[in-house]
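Worked problem 6 (solution included).
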Amino acid sequence: MTEPVASPAAAPVPSPGAATDDGRGLVRPRAGGWRRVARASGIAVAALLVLVMVAALINGASERGERQALPAYGERVAVSGGHLNVYRQGDSGPTIVMLGGYGTAAPALDFAPLIRELHEYRTVVVEGFGYGYSDTEAPPRTIENITAELHEAITTLDLDEPYVLLGHSIAGIYDLYYANRYPDEVSAVIGVDASVPGQMNGLAGQDNPISRLLASSGLLRVATTLMPSLAEPDGTAYAGREREQMRTMMNWNWANPAILDEAKQGARNFSVVEDITYPEDIPLLSFIKKEGSQAGWRMLHARQLENRAHGDLVELDGGHYLHWTHAPELAERIDEFLDGLPGNR
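Solution. The predicted structure is:
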């Protein structure tokens, strides 16, 4: 007696858009499933674009309101290509002209603790194109243009000569070029963890799509609102209103056209000063952090002091912005150095 053969179970009919076996054991969505995935992705992208556009509009409106509410400091000075903002403090004593580092949104505020300590000097902060309250559209940010604009501003201000140059970070190579171009006008140079020939180009990669997106979309404003420490200086030397204004001005000035072009010109500008040292008769005081941003940091700065009658190198424990946390010590060392120069230059 033969046993009955069971009839095969009917294969389930896949529902529209369901996954099917391709015969190799691989499961693939049916065409309808792909369409739903594509549609959902399109909706998500569209929603993101809308959010970015709304954030950009809010960012622009916020900036306009902030500029009306926050009083501008300093004075605007006409130079080739536009206007620079200049902040002056003090009406007696030697003149110190200060230049901020790359990306420092508000140099006059950034130097505030050091300016307060240097109360026996005339301090002048020249904010280059893209910084502080200066114009953000500018001629190419070559070292030649940057130093020529600085000289124009100083000439317009009719400052007493010679004056001391003080530069932080990237301003170090601008001061170096300036001192060689206008040596009779410079009495001494002071560097605050300043850039020097031979170092790596610290501006490389600063001009990138992410920086542009943060600047245009308002995402930076969101980040600095949620995490204020991202845009505030270290230490306790700043008043609350100074911190707030510095944070606000970072939202204004981050990745503006002049700042981005300065980064693009970085490699070229370093190459211009590659084989330059300061004139031998210009005294040089160099403050650096002990742990430099690259190997040989101390050696690179010491090289600028060779064959110089008046030059000091001071190493300090601290970050790149030594004037945030070491303003009293910097001011004391500056006093001693300048007072000890022949003829009290």
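Discussion: The two ends are 123 Å apart (CA to CA).
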